[in-house]
Amino acid sequence: MSSSIPQHIAIIMDGNRRWARQNKLQVFKGHERVAQENIERLTDHCIKLGIPYLTLWAFSTENWKRDKLEVEAILSLMRSMFAKGFGPMIKKKVKIETIGDLSKFPTDIQESIQKLKDGCVEDYKITVTFALNYGGRDEIGRAVEKFVEHEPAAKSAEVEAKLGTYLDTSFLPDPDLIIRTGGEQRLSGFMPWQSVYAELYFSEILMPDFNENELDEALAEYKRRERRFGG
C-alpha cells in the first residue's frame, strides 16, 4: 500500500467546456467556476490534509488553437485571478509558482503573475503551481537547449542525472499522484519526464464539479495501491 498522503498531487483539469455546455452556459463559464471556486477549495483541502505540493494544469501549449473568443476569455480570467482573485490564497500562506513558457502571454499577465509570486510569505503551508502554456515536449525541448548551453562537455551517461535540473519543475518533487478529470484516460503530454513513477487516477467528474469529496476518493484509491518505483 502507498503512504496514505502523497507529497505532490498534480491535476489535469479537464471538462470545463463540457460542463458549461451541459449547464447551457457560455463556454468560458466552466473555466470561471474552476478559477473562482474549485482551485481555492481544493487548495484548502490539501492544506487540511497536510499535502505540501499541488500542481494544476490550467493552460496547455495546445490551448492557443481553440476558438479566439474562448482564448481571449481565458486570458481575461487570468488577468483577473492573478491580479486579485488569488490574493486570498496568499493570506492563507499559499506559495504560488508556475511552470511553462510564460513569455507567450501578454506582458500585463506576466507582471501580475510575478507580483503575486513576490507577495507570497516565506512560512508557506503549500506550494500551488500553475502549469501555464505548458506542454511536456516543449518543456523537455527547452530543458535540452539549456542543458547543451550549460553542460557542453557532458557525457551521455550524465544526461538523465542532470537534465532534470533544467526542467521547469526543478523546484518540485516528482508527482506521486496525477489526477485527470473529465473522463479521458491519457496524460496528453503532461509531465512526461516527472510522471514515470506517479500513480494515475482518472475521474469521470468534470473539473467544475471536482470537489473535496472527489479528491478524497482519489486519495483513497491511491492509498490502496502498492507503489513499486520500477521494482
Q: Could you tell me the radius of gyration in angstroms?
A: 18 Å
| Terminal CA distance | 14 Å
Which sequence of SSEs, written as H and E, runs from N to C? EHHEHHEHEHHEEH
Write down how many β-strands occur, each being a DSSP E stretch of 2 or more residues. Answer: 6
Could you tell me the mean pLDDT? 95
Classify the helix fraction into a percent range. Answer: 40-55%
Strand percentage? 15-25%
- What structural category arises from helix and sheet content? alpha/beta
Strand order, main sheet: write it out: 3-4-2-1-5-6
**Low-confidence sequence ranges:** none
Topology summary:
Layout: E1 8-12, H1 16-22, H2 28-49, E2 53-60, H3 68-85, H4 87-91, E3 94-99, H5 107-118, E4 126-134, H6 136-150, H7 159-163, E5 177-180, E6 199-202, H8 212-224
Parallel strand pairs: 1-2, 1-5, 2-4, 3-4, 5-6
Helix pairs in contact: 1-2, 2-3, 3-5
How would you portray this structure in words?
This protein is of the alpha/beta class. 42% of the residues lie in helices and 16% in strands. A six-stranded parallel sheet has the order 3-4-2-1-5-6, sandwiched between helices. Strand 3 (94-99), helix 5 and strand 4 (126-134) form a beta-alpha-beta unit. The longest helix is centred in the N-terminal third of the chain and has 22 residues, at 28-49.
